[in-house]
Write a structure and sequence with these properties.
This protein is an alpha/beta fold and about 375 residues long. It folds into 2 domains: about 230 residues, 3-Layer(aba) Sandwich (Aspartate Aminotransferase, domain 2), CATH 3.40.640; about 130 residues, Alpha-Beta Complex (Aspartate Aminotransferase, domain 1), CATH 3.90.1150.10. The chain has 14 helices and 13 strands. The protein starts with 17 loop residues before the first helix and ends with a helix.
Length: about 375
């Protein structure tokens, strides 16, 4: 078969079954398409998944992070510690609250926030920390919460990529402080756009509801009040119906992603890419949900740059992504005084990482095809 006749393999493609598609059509025909009964059921199922904790849905994982910070009382004058190795939303929401983002570098092995450096970055102004579970890999949650308790910090877990991940057998979301999930189309579990916030009690859940819809509280047929400054962050019933359809397949999704990740390790082991020095993620098959499979390129040993490597993958009919450039090197953050060299591990990771395809509509033959392509490129362009 010629290379041009091989179907293009994107780096992600959501799996939506026919029952869910029909369910969305039913919602559209019902006349109740914004937040309503489907959303209530979705929240109930998410709550059950998270051990019975209160859960409120939102229209994005960015909104859930921002509202999580507001519920934690973060505002002007406060500092919030996070990692520069994330999607920029993680730190943008800190600025949105009027607080100051404080970055600390990553552990180069796990690619998550270095908890030793986190503790050293705490000041009297530190109010909260946002750990990011990159590619679905949690940080050491025992250590994280030990630090948080010692310094009386709130934790808003950026678990956008970690729905279905665990920590020593306990689901992310069933433990911890405030937990933020994303259900964007590129996540393991999607509602097209959307997210959910896992909270500690009903008072926090009520406050989340107010922030979600203009700060409004309704009573009876005609009672209405507004006592906090809220926004417009509610999830539609159309999106909630997609999420409900995904819940039925979650365990299979997780098992398939784990199998595909294992196939990547097996397919790359001993090949040209590994011999050249390509970096692989930590092979954690206990805790990670395998949201992404990210390699790092030994650019000093290649005669092409990262864009060239990705272009070579595309020529072979394979998509890829970059997750993520170091946040502090964006113009918005340079204007706040951040510079190259401040967080070398995050900078190195951000400059060399490539995300390979990983989604449930793939099979192990697809993985083998990607591994062959990576090896071929390394053989052809290795110095």
């Amino acid at each position: 078969m010629s290379q041009s006749s091989v179907p293009f393999l994107p780096f992600v493609r959501p799996e939506i079954d026919e029952e869910t598609i029909q369910g969305v059509a039913d919602v559209l025909r019902s006349g109740w398409i914004t937040t309503g009964p489907q959303n209530q059921q979705f929240e109930a199922e998410l709550s059950a998944f998270c051990g019975g904790r209160p859960v409120r849905t939102f229209n994005s994982g960015t909104a859930t992070l921002e509202i999580g910070l507001r519920i934690a009382g973060v505002g002007p004058g406060d500092e919030v510690i996070t990692t520069p190795a994330s999607w920029v939303a993680t730190s943008n929401v800190i600025i949105e609250t009027g607080a100051t983002p404080v970055f600390v570098d990553i552990d180069p092995r796990t690619r998550n926030i270095d908890l030793d450096l986190l503790e050293k970055a705490i000041t009297p102004r530190t109010k909260a920390v946002i750990p990011v579970y990159l590619a679905g890999m949690p940080v050491d949650m025992d250590r994280l919460y030990e630090i948080a308790r010692a310094h009386r910090l709130r934790v808003i877990e950026d678990a956008a990529q970690a729905f279905g991940s665990t920590w020593h057998g306990k689901r992310i979301g069933a433990i911890g402080d405030i937990v933020s999930f994303s259900f964007h189309a590129n996540k393991n579990f999607t509602s097209i756009e959307g997210g959910a916030l896992v909270l500690n009690n009903e008072d926090e859940a009520l406050l989340a509801q107010k922030y979600r819809l203009q700060g409004i509280t309704r009573t009876g047929f005609d009672g209405m009040d507004c006592d906090v400054l809220g926004g417009k962050y509610n999830l539609t019933d159309v999106a909630a119906r997609v999420g409900l359809g995904q819940m039925k397949h979650l365990e299979r999704f997780l098992a398939q992603r784990k199998a595909l990740a294992q196939a990547y390790f097996a397919g790359l082991e001993g090949g040209a890419a590994v011999r050249l020095g390509i970096g692989l993620p930590v092979a954690d098959f206990e805790n990670s949900n395998w949201h992404m499979f990210q390699i790092t390129l030994p650019l000093d040993k290649l005669s092409l740059d990262r864009a060239g490597f990705m272009a070579q993958l595309k020529e072979r009919g394979i998509g890829s992504g970059v997750h993520y450039p170091a946040i502090h090197l964006f113009t918005l953050y340079r204007a706040r005084g951040f510079r190259e060299g401040m967080f070398p591990h995050a900078e190195r990771f951000g400059a060399t990482t490539v995300t390979l395809p990983l989604f449930t509509l793939m099979n192990e033959d697809d993985v083998a095809r990607v591994c062959r392509a990576v090896d071929e490129i390394c053989e052809q362009y290795g110095k």
